[in-house]
Amino acid sequence: MNKMIYLCAAAALTLASCSNDETVEVAQQKGISFRAVTGLNTRASEVTTANLSEIQVTAFWDANNNKYDGFTNGEVLYKKDSNGDFNSAIPVYWPGKDQENEKLSFTAFSNNWTGNKTITDKNTISVGSVEINTDVDQQADMVYVTGATGTKVANETAGVPLVLGHALSQIQISAKSDNTVYTYQVKGIRISNVDGEADFDVVTDKWSNNGANDQVYNVTYDNAITLNGTAQTIMKAEGNNLMLLPQAGVDGTGTTTAWDVENDQTNTQKGTYISVLLKIKKGTENVFPAEGDDTYGWAAVPASFTWVKGNKYVYTLDFTNGAGRVDPVTPGPDVKPQPDGKDPKPGDKILGDPIKFTVTVTPWNPQENNIGM
After folding, report:
1. How confident is residue 367, by pLDDT bands cut at 50, 70 and 90?
2. Which fold would CATH assign to domain 4-166?
3. Are 322 and 372 spatial neighbours (Cβ–Cβ below 8 Å)?
4. Which of 131, 176, 303, 329 is buried most, with the most CB atoms less than 10 Å from its CB?
């Protein structure tokens, strides 16, 4: 009798771009199985062993590119059971004995992708109009694999290994201050004017047709974080990072440019920048915003970047010698610019020199970007 195809991921999911990931041996079992591990757990919506519960799978005959029986009507949903195995509601079986050496080619997606999939054959697989949720809490780590092959003879017992890759870039904002005169308290971050929609070619691993490049992503919270000399995340919670489209800023090949603070004070050209919702005090005296008992305003810095899929970027803002500029578009209701109020105007410096930073890249591990305020 032919053996039922089922997916076993009791150990977890392997994410190809994670440098500290490890693929474990597949346990002896019947049918097609997929087993891997991941060593990262930096975000609640990042795909991990514990939270991966559903995957969408497509299979083709590797030789002639025809869809394999059981997958001819599209992707098949596999759900994880209490044993950690992934099973389809309607069983799909391995080829018969006369074809037990014929390869099958598998494509799998985590079941949280936005956009419209086109799956024509093993060489034509794409997802169009992938959108990033403007609610950061709802952003998800989209992972995938294509071109994984297996046969009944080779993989019925050992299983077909799937190594899934991250399609997005992960962004974290951290901050610190060694300043002994000014006290900084932070209640949120914002990244303004980045791409929010694009198409992804799964076979070539390339994003294209980036659009909606005026998207603004906010993270705010009630309990303020007081900065000190040690860099610490100023996201909503540890690991609650942004999951955004790979894209290029002014230093890359894309069309997005950083905010031109010298020639476009209020950023009418919608250049990219990072803002921090903060309160600055000198002893008991309010510095920014200048008035109010518990007031906060947005301080901004131009940001040029190139985000690559599968990379995690940690931008560390250093407030020791400055605080950037008043947000050019939305400084917040507590900010009262001159001449009517005491605060600087949108786009003006708050303290000291403008922020500067450099960037180095590591795959899906913290990329330190020290930014002098």
Report:
1. very low
2. Immunoglobulin-like (2.60.40)
3. yes
4. 303
